[in-house]
Amino acid sequence: MQMIIDFIFKLIFIATVFHLSEALGELTSVVDGNPLELTATSLDVFIDQLPDLALFHANSNFFSGTISPNIAKLPYLYELDISNNLFSGPFPSAILGMNTLSFLDIRFNLFTGSIPPQLFTKDLDILFVNNNNFIQQLAEILGNSHILYLTLANNKFFGPIPRTIAKYFSGLSEVLLLNNMLSGCLPYELGFLTETVVFDAGNNLLTGPIPFSLGCLKKAEVVNFAGNLLYGGVPEVVCAMANLANLSLSDNYFNQVGPICRGLIKKGVLDARNNCIRGLPGQRSLAECMAFFSKPRYCSYRQTYRYLPCWFPHFSGSRTGLTEPAPAPF
Q: Which strands make up the sheet holding 149-151, listed edge to edge?
C-alpha cells in the first residue's frame, strides 16, 4: 500500500511540474522535489516549462545527465539545489550566466574537471560543491567573493593552501577542506581567519609545523588536521584557544606537546593519537617515526611560524618563543 501511495505522489509531482502552467494559466515560482526518488536523464523539460521559476530544489533523487544551458534563461532563479543526484560531466558552465543566483548546491554528484574561477566572483552567499570529482589547484578557484558558506571537501583539490586564504575566506565561519589532496606547508596567514568556527583540513597531504598564528582563531571551536604529514611540536598557544572544543591532530608526526596541550588530551579535547610523542599511549612505532624524520623536510617562510598576529596576555615571549612582530596578512 505504501509503495502505491509513493507512486501516486510521484505522478502528482511530475504532472504538477509539466502541466501547472496549462492548469492554472500561470507559471509556478517554486519547485520542491526533495526527495521523491524521481528518475530522469535530463531536467530540460522541467526548465523549459517553468520560465518564472525562483527556487528549484530537487535533491536526493536519481536525476542524471548534464545541466541544460537553458537554465541561464531563468531570470528569477536565485536558489538551485540539485545535490545528491547522479549528474555528471564538467561543471555546468551555464550557471555562470545566472545573475540572480545566490544559493547553489551541487554536492554529492559526479561532476568532474575544474570549477571555473568566475564562479567565485559571483554574488553567491552559499556554495556547496563537496563530494564530487573536481580536480584543480586550490589557488586557482579563490577569487573576490563574499560567500558566507562554502564547502570544498571530498574532491581532488591539490597544491598548497595559498597565503591569500585570509583575503578570500575571512568571512567564512566554516572552512571545510577535508579529504582532498592538498600539500605543502601551512601558511601563517591562517591566523587571520578570525571569524572561523570550524577549520577542517583533515586527510590531505599537508606537512610542516603548525604555525603559532593558529592560536589567533578566537572563535574556533573545531580544528582538524588529522591524517596529514605535519610534524614538530604542538604550539601551546594553539591549545590555549578559549573556545576550543575539539582539536584533532591524530595520524601525523608531531613529537612534542606541552602542559596545556596535555591537559586537553586528558579532557578529551585534543586527539594526538598515532604521532611520535614520547610518553603518550597509542603512538607510532619508533621505526616508523625514524623513517619519517630521516628524510630532509623544508618549508618556505619558516621564520613566520612563530609570528603571532594577535595579543595573548597570558603568554610571554619566552613561553611562546615569539621574537618578531607579525607582518600584514597579505
A: 30-32, 55-57, 79-81, 103-105, 126-128, 149-151, 174-176, 198-200, 222-224, 246-248, 270-271
